[in-house]
Amino acid sequence: MTIEVRVPQLPESVADATLVSWHKKPGDAVARDENLVDLETDKVVLEVPAPAAGVLKEIKLSDGTTVTSGQLLAVIEEGATAVPGASAPAIMAAPGGATTSAQAAAAAKSPAAAAKLSPAAKRVVEENKLDPGAVSGSGRDGRVSKSDVVNYLSAKDATPQVAKAQQPAGAPAQVPAGAPAARGARAEQRVPMTRLRARIAERLVQAQATQALLTSFNEVDLKAVNELRSRYKEQFEKQHGAKLGFMSFFTKACVEALKKFPSVNASVDGSDIVYHEYFDVGVAVSTDRGLIVPVLRDADHMSFADIEKSIANSAGRARAGTITMEELTGGTFTITNGGTFGSLLSTPIVNSPQSAILGMHKIQDRAVVVDGAVVVRPMMYIALTYDHRIIDGREAVQFLVTVKQCLEDPARMVLGI
């Protein structure tokens, strides 16, 4: 009995998806609920599980095809057993698409290595028909990112140039007389923009084109926060099973500031201002596929431990590509931490339709004046980019001052003052 594998029902806000990569090739045995193929939407990568156990009889669409809900992807022969050494049927390509049987075979050469590929890296590997085992990963546990694959391709293309430079003495000259000496490889790689990256670009341009964005800055002395973390981090982790990081302090401080300045938590809808009476704080997470923003729902009701555990869980699933669309939808305010990568100062762009975003930066010991004396303190610049259409400069500055006060005297967040 044959079973059809179709594109699952996509969320209302998603019109279509892109078929990223097949994990099986025709003729392979599949188990029920085993992931067959990855579909990339504007926000997440969706897995399509096998509806029944058997053998993958036929693949109807190739990698890179744009698909919609209910579209036929493949056919499974239910209850069949794969025959060792049997040749796999050809994959049927979508109109205008190239067949991917060679790509699938290349990936099958090294299944363990293929498992370490991020979705974006896997797509580039299969487009260039590479052996996954030949690419070294720079991520945790050897995970291979798209940049690792691009670097591998650049080095591979540079090999012929190196060979020419190493020709033995007396060999015919390969460079015309009077031509300048070779300055090394100048390879280029053209890689299609992922749907997520394209969507990020679209939203950022839209925000800058439709909002009156302005950025205000302040600086925070994190001595008190550092002392609290040092004093309680071991007990906190032992009791809650999560590390006590900086993000919970900043989330709590932002919530206190949002309560005092509702316009920073508001959004524009046509000619109306929508004041949100809840606090859904998005925390930007960097992944191989791009920046995504999981949302902490009702952050004002979350404890420090709840915030830390939720961020760690969301970040892990975001980087693994298993986070859900619902977790990325909505949000009334966003926090982004460029300091993780060493940024000292930046002007973050608002995550539309929100009206403001807080940028954290690198903590750096600096000489500051405290009570008339010059002391060294762990300082951080913070930035608030906001939509000047509904947020006045006064409110933006006072918002930052409130965040600063909460972090420099964390007792304020406990006492609500």
Keywords, separated by commas or semicolons:
about 425 residues; alpha+beta; OB fold (Dihydrolipoamide Acetyltransferase, E2P); Dihydrolipoamide Transferase; 3 domains; seven-stranded mixed sheet; four-stranded antiparallel sheet; about 30% helix; about 25% strand; elongated
Task: Produce the secondary structure layout.
Layout: E1 2-6, E2 17-22, E3 29-30, E4 35-40, E5 45-49, E6 54-59, E7 66-67, E8 72-78, H1 101-108, H2 111-114, H3 119-127, H4 146-165, H5 195-210, E9 213-221, H6 223-240, H7 247-260, E10 266-269, E11 272-275, E12 281-283, E13 285-287, E14 290-292, E15 295-296, H8 304-320, H9 325-328, E16 333-337, E17 356-360, E18 364-370, E19 373-387, H10 393-408, H11 411-415
Parallel strand pairs: 12-16, 16-17
Antiparallel strand pairs: 1-8, 2-4, 2-7, 3-6, 4-5, 6-8, 9-19, 10-11, 12-15, 13-14, 17-19, 18-19
Helix pairs in contact: 3-4, 7-8, 7-10
How does this structure look, described?
This protein is of the alpha+beta class and 417 residues long. The chain has 3 domains: 1-106, OB fold (Dihydrolipoamide Acetyltransferase, E2P) (Beta Barrel); 109-161, E3-binding domain (Dihydrolipoamide Transferase); 197-415, Chloramphenicol Acetyltransferase. Helices cover 31% and strands 24% of the residues. It has 11 helices and 19 strands. The chain has helices at residues 101-108, 111-114, 119-127, 146-165, 195-210, 223-240, 247-260, 304-320, 325-328, 393-408, 411-415, and strands at 2-6, 17-22, 29-30, 35-40, 45-49, 54-59, 66-67, 72-78, 213-221, 266-269, 272-275, 281-283, 285-287, 290-292, 295-296, 333-337, 356-360, 364-370, 373-387. Strands 9, 12, 15, 16, 17, 18 and 19 form a 7-stranded mixed β-sheet that branches. It has a 4-stranded antiparallel β-sheet with strand order 1-8-6-3, with no helix packed on it. The longest helix is centred in the middle third of the chain and has 20 residues, at 146-165. The chain is elongated. Mean pLDDT is 83; it is low at 87-91 and 93-109.
